[in-house]
Automatic annotation (TrEMBL):
InterPro entries linked: Nucleoside_phosphorylase_d, Nucleoside_phosphorylase_sf, PUNP, Purine_phosphorylase, Purine_phosphorylase-2_CS
Residues at which phosphate binds: S42, H74, R99, T100, H101, G131, S219
This protein's pathway: Purine metabolism; purine nucleoside salvage
Gene: punA
GO molecular function list: purine-nucleoside phosphorylase activity
Domain Nucleoside phosphorylase, residue spans: 36-275
Gene Ontology CC: cytoplasm
Residues involved in a purine D-ribonucleoside binding: E200, N242
EC number assigned by the record: 2.4.2.1
Top enzyme class: transferase
NCBIfam families assigned: PNPH-PUNA-XAPA (TIGR01697), PRK08202.1 (NF006054), PUNP (TIGR01698)
CDD domains reported in the protein's UniProt record: PNP-EcPNPII_like
Protein name per UniProt: Purine nucleoside phosphorylase
Record family assignment: Belongs to the PNP/MTAP phosphorylase family.
Amino acid sequence: MTTTLSLDDPTTDPFLVARAAADHIAHATGIEGHDVALVLGSGWGGAAELLGDVVAEIPTNEIPGFSKPAVAGHVGTTRSIRIERADGSVRHALVLGSRTHLYEGKGVRHVVHGVRTAAATGAQTVILTNGCGGLNLDHGPGTPVLIRDHINLTATSPLEGATFVDLTDLYSPRLRDLARSVDGSLGEGVYAQFPGPHYETPAEVRMAGILGADLVGMSTTLEAIAARHAGLEVLGISLVTNLAAGISPTPLSHGEVIEAGQAAGPRISSLLAQIAKLV
């Protein structure tokens, strides 16, 4: 009898599920290992087409531990892309077109399964992207911002048991410098993750600002923690899709997020592809 590994079973090691997912990806793509992984959030989907040649495309929900995307604007496929670098070397990128959010209620294991799978495929680097609200008026809608640090306001962690991981320089200074070598105008900020799915109140946004946040959203921090634990070097980039509540003069809507992402798409996709070819 074949036993199906499930992230919902608390007795199952989530890293075994990640290993099974990586094996499935290797079989489906014909690529034994990947070098870099990208998680494409709202507005960032167009970058995949600019990275290089698509070796294979897999329905994400067919990979062990994954499900169909629950958010409009996210892509339900995982792609293996061959990247030819300027120095003549070849690398393979694993592009995750969707992510599981904490507010979906599936549990934090599902939220971080993508980055754990990326590590299991052999990736050394992960680029985490998202669409977010901005607190800094200098970072208006359509502005990409490097994540320098984060504030996890979800009241949970992807680490289980007595697992202690240093998060100093979680968002790699080396990779941030590399990103600025592509675009010297890139600013930096601190990203605060709220649980969602409701948008933050003006009072919560003010609180986040007092705590030191420049950006607010509903993803990324738990993935970044899990990525560090798995040994990945992390680059985080946010696309400011709207000014946060209390800063924006108009009510917030998911349609606004998608519209801003579409408007900025060509520029940020080109930026991300150039960065990914250097890491």
